[in-house]
Amino acid sequence: xxxxxxxxxxxxxxxxxxxxSASSDDGIISLNGKWELSYWKQPEQPVLSPDGMKQMEVxxxxxxxxxxxxxxxxxxxxxxxxxxxxNVNELRKWEEFQWxxxxxxxxxxxxxxxxxxxxxxxxxxxxxxxLNGKRIGxxxxxxxxxxxxxxxxxxxxxxxxxxxxxxxxxxxxxNYFLGSFSIxxxxxxxxxxxxxxxxxxxxxxLPRLVSAGLWRDVELRVLEQARFKDVHYMVANLDTxxxxxxxxxxxxxxxxxxxxDKVKAVYTLxxxxxxxxxxxxxVVSPAFRYIMELKNADLWWPxxxxxPALYEAKVELVDEDGSVLATDTKRIGLRTVxxxxxxINLPDDPGKFCFIVNGERIFIHGTNxxxxxxxxxxxxxxxxxxxxxxxxxxxNMIRCWGGSVYEDHHFFDLCDENGILIWQDFAMGCTFYxxxxxxxxxxxxxxxxxxxxLRNHPSxxxxxxxxxxxxxxxxxxxxxxLDPNRDVVTRxxxxxxxxxxxxxRPYLPSSPYISEAVYQKGCDEKYWPExxxxxxxxxxxxxxxxxxxCAFVSEIGYHGCPNLESLKKMMTEDCVYPWVKDHExxxxxxxxxxxxxPVWGKTFDRNNLMINQVRLLFGxxxxxxxxxxxxxxxxxxxxxxxxxxxxRGNKFNKTGIIWWNLRDGWPLxxxxxxxxxxxxxxxxxxxxxxxxxxxxxMNDARDGNHPLVAxxxxxxxxxxxxxxxxxxxxKQIFEGKFYxxxxxxxxxxxxxxxKGQGILLIRYKVGNQEFTNHYLYGExxxxxxxxxxxxxxxxxxxxx
Length: 800
Description:
Blueprint: H1 3-15, E1 28-30, E2 33-41, H2 50-53, E3 59-65, H3 69-75, E4 97-106, E5 115-120, E6 123-124, E7 127-131, E8 134-137, E9 146-149, E10 159-166, H4 169-172, E11 213-214, E12 218-223, E13 227-239, E14 244-254, E15 264-271, E16 274-282, E17 287-294, E18 311-318, E19 324-332, E20 337-341, E21 353-357, E22 360-362, E23 364-369, H5 383-392, E24 397-400, H6 409-418, E25 421-425, H7 437-454, E26 460-464, H8 469-477, H9 488-501, E27 507-508, H10 516-520, E28 530-533, H11 543-546, E29 552-556, H12 564-570, E30 580-581, E31 584-585, H13 587-591, H14 605-618, H15 625-648, E32 656-659, H16 682-690, E33 694-698, E34 705-712, E35 718-726, E36 732-740, E37 745-752, E38 758-766, E39 769-777, H17 784-794
Parallel strand pairs: 23-24, 23-32, 24-25, 25-26, 26-27, 28-29, 29-32
Antiparallel strand pairs: 1-12, 2-3, 2-4, 4-10, 5-9, 5-12, 6-11, 7-8, 7-10, 13-14, 14-17, 15-16, 15-18, 18-19, 20-21, 21-22, 30-31, 33-34, 34-37, 35-36, 35-38, 38-39
């Protein structure tokens, strides 16, 4: 090492006096905690090394890892909270900066044969990693994990300096040449080549916040000579009635050559602390398969359909003397999942889109999952409460939307435990992505990383190529009639990876998917078996919704204003009210609508959805903020309830509804039923009522009569009592019993269409449990005051 480099190290070490946490039993040493963060404006030729930093005007602050640079700037008093008012717009000027994270640490002493790996759970995004003055890696993907063998670069038992230099994603994006297909679509064109969460460049549900940072854990990992590289569990065959399961276990390992033929692999399955299976085999190669034949096994089921049974699955490498050389432990569920899907929906041959688990058709009622936070280092602290809400709402599926990041294991562990199926988009959305090998190689690497990380989770039910990329071609290039089936990314690269690494799970090229058969018909929505129902966003009983031809709707939503307490948190005091002045929305309400660039001026469309929808249902728009909030939330709640009941009332002609969406990832005005502060809107409680496993509700009248419907999303028949009364008059409309077969639907009765306007209260009993629901009858406009009074009389919901 030359003297100049030694001096540079000395300077850094003089102001970095940071400790790392102690080594854990599994050989992992955390490098989380306090780091130093340096920053400077990126020059025309970016700084790629510590030497290059010497030429820059560098400033340094304290940083926290996991973290985002904005949170460190906020802690240092250099920016205002981007969650409040228009402050997020001030982050635009920071997009041209480079960043350097620095940390000194003492390395452990390695024993003979051990290796040392440096692991990053998430780096945002374009980075050069230096250890003790040597570049060890150049990761360029925010969305996947990165690891590097640093055995030869580390100074064992001594001080080491780790530096991560991050380039500006916005400036670097200018280096890529885009094709015509990639220009003019929903996200910024600059984002298409950069493997970063698409929403970061601005969306209609999240602001432009092009962050940087070490947003997940950083660790040193001590690797033993004998170790597992991967263990993959696949259910090859399953008999639901007999509960017999054939389970494949594919293992790959590192092992000193002299140990082959002498070491054995020991396989055990444990359930609730009891051993369910044990077997052994000799290890003769670094990759091998073991087949378990299980009798009377406990199966993993989605919510409502049975227990989500989980096993502790363990594989050990055991030496001749009985010593354990390596262990791999996972939690697995025994289940099969299929997607019964046809390529086109025709009048005489209706399209199919139905999930089947363990041979049982599953009616889906669930939610779309968007970023938990625009600054993703905070995601982990928010997962538990969000999943608790999904469980409380009885969601049996979560669709992880393609504009976000991939959630970490903890999210999937919770879904495994709670029987929530996962529809996982790959992180692409609303854009036609580059087709060149320079891009597709990155996608291949990403898909391999994500699939191999998550494929052992029983909750993962579907891989989807992207969100709305197929139909993005129609938005901006409709006259050219381009065929999305020529897309190399979703029709070749991704399915090839899945065929090799996860062949047992269904794959959907895009959502919605424009198949070749649909394309040949002209791409009209009526041909799509699965669709996103947004459309004109008018009255929720418009023909657009009630005449939708798709069997499965994977996005559908309605705007609802947040609660007053949340508005006061997300805006400055003077801008909470009036929200409209001189027929224009005030600027903070526009920012929260969301507006990606202030130079676009006043953009009202998103907020005007609320005004239009309130006027359609109630005939007027209240001027008092509290009344407006109640009216807006009421419309959203009635709409969302109506959509779910309309879909469930037509089970299994309709096979699932995944509504938009559970929770906001930034303080805004949106379709979410829970805002960024975890404050629930009225729609939350309406949806909770209509997503019960056994649910009774009324659908709209046909030929002068309302169907009173019972649905049963369990594998056991259900029966009980039901009573329907008019809330205003107290008049009893119906009283009787009901029986609904397992996983079925029945029409209990046909009730005369009610005259005028009002609310019917539905009370029903299943076993010892009592439930309630309501039905709003009549034609709009309704009087807001009368609606509120009737709702209070139901005692169903807390009405302020």
